[in-house]
Amino acid sequence: MKQEMVAMLLAGGEGKRLGPLTRKTAKPAVHFGGKYRIIDFPLSNCTNSGITTVGVLTQYEPLELNRYLGIGTAWDLDRRNGGLAILPPYQAQSGKNWYEGTANAIYRNLSYIDDYDPDYVLILSGDHIYKMDYEKMLEAHKEKQADVTISVMEVPWDEAPRFGILNTADDLRINEFEEKPEEPKSNLASMGIYIFNWSVLREHLIKDAEDETSSFDFGKNIIPNTLLQGLDVFAYKFKGYWKDVGTIQSLWEANMDLLEEEPPFDLYDPEWKIYSVNPNQTPQYIGKDACVEQSVINEGCHIEGEVQHSVLFYDVRVGEGSLVKDSVIMPGARIGKDVTIHRAIVASCAVIEDGATVGEPGGEIVVIEPHENIESGTVFKQRV
Amino acid sequence: MKTLKAEPSSNNEFDTSKETRKEALLLTNDLLGVINLGTEQGLFPEFTGHRNLASVPFSGRYRLIDFTLTNMITQNINQVGIFTLDKYRSLMDHLGSGKEWDLDRSQGGLHIFPPALKPDGEAYLGDLANFSMHREHFIRSKQPYVVITGSNVLTTIDYNDMLAHHKSMGADITLAYTTHEQKCGYCRPIRLGENDRVVGISERGFSPDDEYTYTETIIMSKNLFMRLVDEATSKGEYDLLDGVIRPQLHRLHVHGYHYVGKMQVIHSVLSYYNESMRLLRGEGIIYDFPHIYTKIKHEPPTRYLKGSKVNEALVANGCKIHGEVQNSILFRGVQVSKHARVKNSIISSKSIIEEGAVVENAILDKEVVVKRGQVIRGTIDEPIVIAKRTVV
């Protein structure tokens, strides 16, 4: 059945720079913010923007992600028409292949999109923490009568060389795209969020697939090609919080951002709820001698020690006499008694036994791996 | 907290093994769940002015009905009928399609029955007319046995074990009893004869000689249940326990099933308050379920700000705490502002305690606002109750 716009969410990323956190799971399934996984943000944005057909393209370590997504119930995407569909690579008459690039992943699912006969296709990735109304972006796209609209945001000039930079005219028409330019002419960075007229994208995907020199990538091939052809490509300026959480440092920072008195990123807006799969935990219990300040804590936690300036996911235990500071503790982690933790990311179901020390004030961010066991009395300041 | 060795309670975030009880469960279940709200009318008016008892909020993020429902579904009972008597809007809103309890099923699932009415629109007295009016539900269901219970007596009774006991004793009716705690004025004492046969069921209220407490849970075959309902309604009886079972104790084989787990009974302001405070001492029933299912609200985690001081507190998600909270329960989305103090209290969802306000020994219903500097103070024996959406 026809849908005006279909969203395609690229969720096959490996997230190598997240190290142990993505060893056995895809980056979009990485935990964030005490309750969420990265993919909750684009999916909730879809729901809040009125987009009800979302294809999620998976490839790298999809098991945890697939189980998490289910049929999309948590995001109200369990629909009779459309809804959420997980789209892994599949065997076809033309052969058996993995998705070779972002554009190739979409190309291989042309028929999925065709089924909905959409006017527009929204391309998203599962790498960023942000809230965005895609409907407004679509309005801008229609208003400009664009073929392609690329969401951009202003980044500090000195950071611009790390991004894909778009050079625009005054009316936001894009005339040049430069991937990581040494001397940027603009500070408008592409956010990797695109709206295409489906007919335009379809044609370009087919052409791109036939080009043996292509790397089948939106940033490297599809977008430059549309510009070369002189299509109407416009920028859409996004203002607000947008954070790439692709590294341990940035993931930690983005979590710490939530702890400010007036957080730059508001999870508490009732008009723009972030949906996630509910783990059905009891309320958190803060014990007799516990002390909790400047922290974000989820249900199912049981705190007997001290928690300062930290983010705790569901079902975390912190024993008596322990201190957790400037850290992110992921679901199911067990922290014993008299433990000291500074500047750490403790991954899910890790165990820090009594008396252990992890990290140090002012030190590098230490990652304790999922299910890792730090034995009693160990001093673990840095991974060697 | 025990000494921590390398034994996490669950090795896997998605571990479901702890949800299975002591033995493997059957794929299908012989029990039809019946939650009878028909005997709970009129209790606890301070909190049930606009809702029935089953939808009274309890334990930070639940409503009373969640406990019975959870106990049923975690034991594989997959068809549950809820017989309401009045004020069921809030209950219907809470239950929806039964999705959160996995009861949105094409086979079985959740059935909510509005009360039976007389031709003139008046409600019938008691619960029997309700069962009788909806007898088609029982005819259509495939389960040969019914388990009938309510919402305000919280237990973790193993219904399947109780059914096995019922069958092995060849009983007509089996009712669960407990021997300890809860000698409350609301409960009914029972007397047991030889081999745990029930020989007497008393009126509500406990005398010091009474030993056994009825837990408001019965199992019997569906056929017997329907026969008893039909006979009694034709004779003008209106109450299942008082009109049908009690008068026939000599004729029917009514057997006692000894339940040894915890029980929490909510029937008045004081019992609500005391049972809530028990949760803070780690004694409540919430710790005996691996998970308790309830309506999902998608609240973000709770924020503790600089200067917050929270001790011995059960806190749900979506709260923002800047002040002091001691020995209290905060439901979802509560705000405790700077320099505000909450002690020995229960604050229901979305209530706001403004700067410098003090709330002590109180129960606040939903969406109450305590203005800056105001003081609400009850006593431990007589906690003060503030009605929904009051601004103090």
Q: Any overview of this molecule?
A:
The complex is a heterodimer of chains A (384) and B (392). Chain A has 384 residues and is an alpha/beta fold. Helix content of chain A is 18%, strand content 29%. Chain A has helices at 40-48, 63-69, 102-107, 110-114, 134-143, 198-210, 218-228, 248-257, and strands at 5-10, 31-32, 36-37, 53-57, 83-87, 91-92, 95-96, 120-125, 128-130, 148-154, 164-168, 174-179, 188-197, 233-237, 242-244, 284-286, 291-293, 295-297, 302-303, 306-308, 311-312, 317-318, 323-325, 328-329, 334-335, 340-342, 344-346, 351-352, 357-358, 366-368, 373-374, 379-380. The longest helix of chain A has 13 residues, at 198-210. By secondary structure, chain B is an alpha/beta fold. Helix content of chain B is 18%, strand content 26%. Chain B has helices spanning 64-73, 89-95, 128-133, 135-140, 159-169, 222-234, 240-245, 269-280, and strands at 31-36, 57-58, 62-63, 79-83, 109-113, 145-149, 153-155, 173-178, 189-192, 198-201, 212-221, 254-258, 263-265, 302-304, 309-315, 320-321, 324-330, 335-336, 341-343, 346-347, 352-353, 358-360, 362-364, 369-370, 375-377, 384-386. Chain B is elongated, with a radius of gyration of 22 Å. Classes of the chains: A alpha/beta (384), B alpha/beta (392). The interface between A and B is large, with 58 and 48 residues.
**What is the first-to-last residue Cα distance of chain A?**
55 Å
Radius of gyration of chain A equals: 22 Å
Order of strands across the biggest sheet of chain A? 5-4-1-8-13-10-14
* Major sheet size, sense and barrel closure of chain B: 9 strands, mixed
Low-confidence runs of at least 5 consecutive residues of chain B: 5-24
Give the % helix of chain B. 10-25%
Q: Which regions of chain A are unreliable across 5 or more consecutive residues at pLDDT < 50?
A: none
Would you report the number of β strands of chain B? 26
Strand content of chain A: 25-35%
Mean pLDDT of chain A: 94
Beta-strand portion of chain B reads 25-35%
Largest beta-sheet characterization of chain A: 7 strands, mixed
What is the average per-residue confidence, as pLDDT of chain B, rounded to a whole number? 88
Tertiary shape of chain A = elongated
Rg value of chain B: 22 Å
Number of helices, counting only DSSP H or I runs of 4 residues or more of chain B: 8
Structural class of chain B: alpha/beta
Q: How far is it from the N-terminal to the C-terminal residue of chain B, by CA?
A: 39 Å
